[in-house]
Amino acid sequence: MQVVHIRGNLYMLVGAGANVTASIGPDGVMLVDTGLPGQTDRLLAAIQRIQGALLLDQARAARLPQGAAEGRSTIQDSQNPVPAPKPIRYIINTHAHADHTGGNAAVAAVGRTFTGGNVAGNIADAGEGAAILAHENVLVRMNTPTPGQAATPFRALPTDTYYVDTMKLSHFFNGEGVQLMHQPAAHTDGDSLVWFRGSDVIAAGDIFNTESYPVIDLASGGHVNGLVAGLNRILDLAVAEFRSEGGTLIVPGRGRLSDMGDVAYYRDMVTIVRDRVQALIDKGLTVEQVKTARPTFEWDGRYGATSGRWTTDMFVEAVYTNLKADTEARRAAAAATRPGRRP
Ligand SMILES: [Zn+2]
């Protein structure tokens, strides 16, 4: 596991599947996504290492009288023991995919919510583990059985969902507000951007990544236009420090920590590819002809792939499928309202 300190209480944990954003501080731990199922022990070990280092610093600072030499503090160790780490209180899922929710059950089991069992509402055991926040469609997707796959365990399912545009935590956590923003029909139909409002960091889930073309999960309600809208929303929220560099930081679903300039470059790429594919559809080209026309060619060196879980062909095909369906729907609607047509 690679740990990147982002800013303030926020860390990016890399290597458990998708990137995990962690807020670690005096109120406990909040995680955005939980990685792949088999990676939970490594994820928890990394969090404990960060907590351990923070608590040791804190204890040392409390122990040392102003201007004292460090070697003198040993006698006072028993009076200022290193405090116990705070529990994991919240998990936020950016969407339902297994590389983002796989650790939910195991991570939630070691955590505890603020409210505890008595006031946790309609879920009887919510007090026993961390609360899991997500858009309603994440719960629906995770709770819909897939043929040939085991059902998602109850403890892995979101405990608190929202169905409107945004949801915010009702109180500060580790010194800042946290807001979830739903991005309809983008990577899936249940994507949330998670905005840490004090640190000014946005966890983008799989709406943004620095390693491949954006994955459009058609079977889960994904759409290229929603992806572009999601990238534009990040750019609306973000403020650069200088020109398009620095300032608001963005944690991608996969890849390296990014700023506004990175997201703008990616947004431009997706927008140009989308518009090219639309132009080719308007000329009547088939999906195979569109692929041969290589609408992505300038970016294939950076994002392209011919094998693996998301190839260039799969991306072009997904964009084509989205736009072709929309084009046909528009034509049918226009034909239905054409003057002179009788029902
Ligand atoms: Zn995903």
Write up this protein.
This protein has 343 residues and is α/β, with parallel strands linked by helices. The chain has a domain at 2-203: 4-Layer Sandwich (Metallo-beta-lactamase, Chain A). Helix content is 34%, strand content 17%. It is built from nine helices and 13 strands. The strands form two sheets. It has a seven-stranded mixed beta sheet. A six-stranded mixed beta sheet has the order 8-9-10-11-12-13. β4 (28-32), α1 and β5 (88-92) form a beta-alpha-beta unit. α5 (224-237) runs antiparallel to α6 and α6 (260-282) packs across α9 (312-336). The longest helix has 25 residues, at 312-336. The radius of gyration is 23 Å and the shape is elongated. The protein starts with a strand and ends in a 7-residue tail after the last helix. The structure holds zinc ion. Zinc ion is lined by residues 95, 97, 100, 187, 206, 215.
| CATH H-tier superfamily of the domain at 2-203 | Ribonuclease Z/Hydroxyacylglutathione hydrolase-like
Which structural class should the secondary elements be placed in?
Answer: alpha/beta
CATH topology of the domain at 2-203: Metallo-beta-lactamase, Chain A
Query: Could you tell me the radius of gyration in angstroms?
Result: 23 Å
Helix content: 25-40%
CATH architecture field of the domain at 2-203: 4-Layer Sandwich
Give the percentage of residues in beta strands. 15-25%
Outline the low-pLDDT stretches: 72-76, 114-126
Major sheet? 7 strands, mixed
N-to-C CA distance: 64 Å
Overall CATH class of the domain at 2-203:
Alpha Beta
What is the assembly state of the chains in this entry?
single chain
What binds here, in terms of ligands, is: zinc ion
Instruction: Name the helix and strand elements from N-terminus to C-terminus, one letter apiece.
Output: EEEEHEHHEHEEEEEHEEHHHH
How many beta-strand segments? Answer: 13
DSSP helix count? 9
Q: Average pLDDT value?
A: 89
What global shape is seen? Answer: elongated
